[in-house]
Write a structure and sequence with these properties.
alpha+beta; Alpha-Beta Plaits; five-stranded antiparallel β-sheet; binds flavin-adenine dinucleotide
Amino acid sequence: MTGLVEQLASIVGALNVSAGAAIAPDDTHDEALTGHPATPLAVVRPACTAEVSRILAVADECRVPVVARGSGTGLSGASRPVPDGIVVAFDRMNRILEIDTANHAAVVEPGVTLTQLDEALQPSGLVYAVYPGEMGGSLGGNVATNAGGMRAVRYGVTRHNVLGLELVLPGGQVLQSGGKYVKSSSGYDLTQLVIGSEGTLALVTGVTVKLVPRMAHTATLLAPFDTLEAVAGAVGPVLASGATPLILEYLDALAMEGITRAAGLDLGVPATVRSGATAYLVLVLEGSDPGRVDADAEAAASLVATLGALDVYILPPAAGGALVTARERAFFVSRAAGADDIVDTVVPRGALPAYLARTATLAAEHGALVSGCGHVGDGNVHLSVFLADPHRRRAFLRAVFEAARDAGGAVSGEHGIGVDKREYFLDLEDPAKVALMRRIKAAFDPHDILGPGRIFSGGAGSGDAGTSEGASSGDGTHSGPEAVTR
Ligand SMILES: Cc1cc2nc3c(=O)[nH]c(=O)nc-3n(C[C@H](O)[C@H](O)[C@H](O)COP(=O)(O)OP(=O)(O)OC[C@H]3O[C@@H](n4cnc5c(N)ncnc54)[C@H](O)[C@@H]3O)c2cc1C
């Protein structure tokens, strides 16, 4: 162990390796509500690709597990350390290398945060369009989780907005995939393979992102509905109308009450309407011409009024912005209220009404209180789950994930499988697909050192190699019922 720390210090400098009591508590967990912090052997902070390459050469040689860390804002335990492994933290690799206005692209190091990139892009009139609710997340973390967010309905998720990657493989080999072009038909697309791989295939040391024009004007519509099914049912017609929303979200009444109260926000919805509302649709339009945006908002409001809304409000610009900001804080509001878990299932848009009805039925059957919101424009449903008993919660979550799968969707729409959703993913996913994913993993990482226990069970240092899927979390904690007791 001392030898390993010395080797790492010889690569990055002693000040950039911490071990034992010197490891900061922040480096021992992410933002997931489940699981326990874990202290690794060492946290190492490289400054450049060459250092990452040397770190991975040492780790591969010594078969030491490696967990990558961006900003630690993930919600699935994926950047939680492995006790007998090292964490490679990317916060020192935070340079914006290039803003290329001719090619509408930017090249950044993986530790650059979304806020940092957004500020740097302001003068160019361009924007990186992926806006997950947490702008402190790093580009490397966004790539590894295929981060989505509210604007995915308009611009897609990370995989639609990343053009190329610089990758370091276990053993230290450095590869470039993709580049400042939109299309390539030249062999397998390694960029897309690594996006969403949760740090299990390669470490990302460079990201080339697509930029789009930054629109100056927005308009925000708020529409209360009397049922969840009605709000979900409005999504298809709104999108079919050609309205091209920047944001299309739903919040159930509990979620709306929580975020507006936390933000001290009065949206002007009369108490008589609020009392009859079970859920709300939030629709944001954007454009470069304010008159055109306002006209589109009026047209969208007329349409939504015909889709069963109790009323439709076009919010003043400040209130619209404040509502979106409040919605971004929904996770923290749920956490403060004592939520036991947050799930982020996804289903086809057309399946949303039935899926939301099904989750309500399941909640009643399992005695769970759930509060929901989500990016309904792309079928993403976030449920805050309040059910203290870990055994009952586990059964409820499994049923919710199974219902998503049966509706043609998936366990995670954007936060990833990580450690905490692994047992459900492995239980519900097609075993043939999981086996193929494992073969891909083995091709990138033959000694299984990268992100052990994330997505799959087993792996170096996971403590569960060769055991049945889902038996243990692989980070020294357990993903079974006892693990979710906090
Ligand atoms: C309030 C809040 C709201 C959120 N809203 C959304 C949302 O709307 N949509 C959404 O998709 N997510 C959302 N998230 C989740 C989170 O912000 C994203 O998952 C984000 O992409 C994680 O980035 P990070 O830098 O914090 O990654 P981390 O948490 O540090 O790591 C996440 C994963 O990426 C891997 N990783 C990190 N850097 C690298 C690298 N350089 N190379 C290889 N692997 C790497 C880690 O090993 C881990 O597997 C939200 C989180 C919070 C707290």
